[in-house]
Specification:
The protein is α/β, with parallel strands linked by helices. The chain is built from 7 helices and 7 strands, in the order H-E-E-H-E-H-E-H-E-H-E-E-H-H. It has one domain: Glutaredoxin, CATH 3.40.30. InterPro entries: Thioredoxin-like_fold (IPR012336), Thioredoxin-like_sf (IPR036249), Thioredoxin_domain (IPR013766).
Length: about 180
């Protein structure tokens, strides 16, 4: 009897753990859409692309209508499935002249893994330096509990979405209209 119970309960426990880690909404944020993000959390920080050239985060916001913060890691299967879709949307919007930027918030275990993932799968995105405390503060602020998670702010730092991943999955490139609704284009 114990063997039967054990053989049926272990798969259920594994599924529950996987759903908690990778499933559903990645942010149970209590930060309301439409609220102003506390820019002090990222103030004075810099981001860089694969070429290692640094740029102040304030310039990224000043130059873009939409800034997407993408929490992900190369070791995460749902991330590896979602990243190509985000990269394709990003590329299409950039080619259409839309002012959008993605900032990778790595949950990789090493800097080498992070850089390899960026080179292999990402668009020409920015990232905070590996191990940056900014990522942790930002994740805590938005209560990011799983990956992949997409948090979207506008260029003024107003929260546009705390559920960007599901919006992308549902709307694909049409997400631009949702994210910029009511904003001057």
């Amino acid at each position: 009897m114990w063997e039967l119970l054990q053989s049926s309960i272990i798969p259920v426990i594994i599924v529950v753990i996987l759903l908690k880690l990778f499933g559903g909404k990645g942010s149970s944020s209590s930060v309301p859409v439409g609220s102003k993000f506390d820019m002090d959390i990222i103030s004075g920080s810099q981001v860089s692309k694969l070429d290692k050239k640094k740029k102040p985060i304030s310039e990224v916001f000043a130059e873009n209508d939409i800034v997407v913060f993408y929490f992900s890691a190369h070791w995460c299967p749902p991330c590896r499935n979602f990243t190509p879709q985000l990269a394709s949307i990003y590329k299409g919007l950039k080619e259409a002249g839309k002012k959008i930027e993605v900032i990778f918030m790595s949950s990789d275990r090493t800097e080498e893994q992070m850089l390899s993932y960026m080179e292999e799968s990402h668009g020409d995105w920015f990232a905070f330096e590996f191990g940056s405390p900014i990522k942790k503060k930002f994740a805590e602020h938005f209560q990011v509990s799983s990956i992949p998670t997409v948090i979207v702010l506008n260029g003024d730092g107003v929260v546009v979405s705390t559920d960007g991943r599901n919006e992308i999955l549902r709307l694909d490139a049409g997400v631009w209209e949702k994210w910029t609704a009511g904003a001057p284009q």
